[in-house]
Amino acid sequence: MGSLKILTAIIPVGPMSGQLNQIFDTLKECKSLPIEIIVVCDDHKDGTKDKLASLIGDEFPEIKLMIGEFNSPGLARNVGLSEATSPWIVFWDADDSPKPHASLQAIAEIQNSTTNLICTQYSIYDASTKNEIYSSELRTSEVKNLQAVGTQPGLWRFIFSRDLLSNLKFTPSKMGEDQEFLAQVFNRNPHVVFEDLHSYNYLVSRKGQLTEDKSNISYLIDTIEKIKGLNSKTPAKFKECVRLMLIQMILALLLSKNRKFKIIGFQYALRNLFSLVRSVTTILREKKERNG
What we know:
Elements: E1 7-13, H1 21-30, E2 35-42, H2 48-59, E3 64-68, H3 73-83, E4 88-91, E5 97-98, H4 100-108, E6 117-126, E7 132-135, H5 140-145, H6 147-150, E8 158-161, H7 177-186, E9 192-204, H8 219-231, H9 236-254, H10 259-271, H11 273-290
Parallel strand pairs: 1-2, 1-4, 2-3, 6-9
Antiparallel strand pairs: 4-8, 5-9, 6-7, 6-8
Helix pairs in contact: 7-8, 8-9, 9-10, 9-11
């Protein structure tokens, strides 16, 4: 079956109308690397499943392709987790551009055997214009209190030890499920290290993305409640991080064009007014610092 794999990459694939150029670029880049690839594809009738199965079978025989009815990236990731065999795990999206060499370098640079969570750098690009919209920056103060994670909580910027994720599962939510998963991870009090390596390019403004479907914002309400319950048990050093994640979800409800969600967001904001003001101040200050 080839050489020992250091890293497992789990890639959920939803309905993409057969538009799979990005994921195949990723698979090609990983072909000679010690990375186990698990692709979990929803059984939609839009051409994606058949094209994916055909191309993977021809070019990438070592890739694990799993097809089923999941209807959410979280449930698809759970299937991938159950099949992962490498000591480290990453979660990539099929329509993004991960940097696998950087992920492997981050693992290689670990100096403490107790480390079980690695946080890396990433950028956000507009898929239509190819312009960079945002690039994460880690500062000493942010690392100290984990604000870098709370204000920039992309699941894809993390590399997890497989042992850390034992018995953890994503929920079927279509928005915020990755933040809820991170809150579960933080409740395990991981030993996190920050690596100044650019491991991921997140692409936005693609047709069909879950985040582009504004109706999915309704899922945030349930996610907020679940994370609030988790945060009551969160270790002290991660509490600020989880609080910032929560506040950003509340802001998303407030900024929604749907009146019902605005009202719910306003109710949450009133109940968390002090935290909201403090968090918005933190987010705006960091944005100002990043912009020089």
